[in-house]
Amino acid sequence: MNRAPRVAAVHDMSGIGRCSLTAALPVLAAMGAWCCPMPTAYLSAHTAFPLSDQAVFLDMTGQMAGTARHWRELGMEFQAIYSGFLGSEEQIGLLRRFLAEFRRPGAVVLVDPVMGDHGQPYRTYTPEMCSRMGLLAAEADLITPNLTEAALLLGVPYASAPTSERGAAEWLERLSLEGRRSVVLTGLSFAPGTVGAGCLDRATGRIRFAMEAQEPGHFPGTGDLFASVVLGALLRGETLEAASAQAVRFVRRCVARTLAAGTPPLEGVEFEPLLRELMDGGRTAG
Ligand code: PXL
User: Fold this and answer.
1) Which of 146, 226, 154, 224 is nearest to 189 (CA)?
2) Which CATH fold would you assign to the domain 6-279?
3) pLDDT digits over 175-210, tens only?
4) Using an 8 Å Cβ cutoff, are 198 and 188 in contact?
5) DSSP state of 141
6) Rounded distance from Cα 237 to ligand 1 centre (Å)
7) How far is CA 68 from the centre of its chain?
8) Is the CB–ligand 1 distance for residue 111 below 6 Å?
9) Is the CB of 219 under 6 A from ligand 1?
10) What is the pLDDT of residues 81-109, one digit of tens each?
11) Cβ distance 263 to 203 under 8 Å?
């Protein structure tokens, strides 16, 4: 029997809002991977909800090195190391040490450089954190930035984000650090009413775009859902192009369902009823 591929997932856990670990755990499980969480923080709700004195943010930096030590003692090996939203500058350094220790030949290091959206950094991300995120992302095999994060990584204004395939290809090339890492760039749109992702696969050097009809509205957490589907598909042996196209399609279907259900956008997308589509290899119609 093949063993389920193991993923060390280093993200926050948010009680409300369907993002980070609450997206990665179910998506990766549905796609046949064993997702081992190393929470960076516990938040009562993700940071897109209005600021409140009641909001809980439990920084779990102090648990990370001990968790890594215990995992080493248990002899854990991972086919993927997957990071997302990080709670402090120090966590970025800890994660780099974790990579140095746990990275195995053939394993995938996916750094989703979660830092912001719509041209703005998330409110917990300082400029120092963003620059350290760049150092972490430089060690990745694959990064999955949105346009805001790509602009931060490239050190260019968000206003210069590409609006054509040619411009997007140029950003993908630059983000690949001369082909050293693969990139999936999300949130691209080249024509009104369409949205999708572009990818550069370092194995082939090829650039491909996967575009779909754009559903109206903005939903926090879709980037985490997207990256988790990409990783799940890669671990099943799909190419980066196929993984990226599957993730674009799945997120669009989740958004369409959520719009039809009429739930509050801040709660994220209702992906749960659609998880079964990931189980059969994403071959469900639509
Ligand atoms: O989806 C990115 C994300 C992850 N985790 C937390 C967030 C956000 C975006 O707002 O607040 C806690």
Assistant:
1) 146
2) UDP-N-acetylmuramoyl-L-alanine:D-glutamate ligase (3.40.1190)
3) 999 999 999 999 999 999 999 999 999 999 999 999
4) yes
5) S
6) 28
7) 21
8) no
9) no
10) 999 999 889 999 999 999 999 999 999 99
11) no
Q: Is 228 in the pocket of ligand 1 (CB under 6 A)?
A: no
Closest CA to 83 of 6, 140, 16: 140
Neighbours of 194 (CB within 10 A): 13
Which ligand 1 atom sits nearest the alpha carbon of residue 220? 1
**Residue 91, amino acid:** Q
The number of helix segments (H) and strand segments (E) in the chain equals 9, 11
Q: Is 39 in the pocket of ligand 1 (CB under 6 A)?
A: no
> What confidence score (pLDDT) does residue 282 get?
55
CB atoms under 10 Å from CB of 104, counted, come to 9
48 lines ligand 1 (CB under 6 A): yes
For tokens 């093949």, the residue is 2
Residue 50 has pLDDT above 60, yes or no: yes
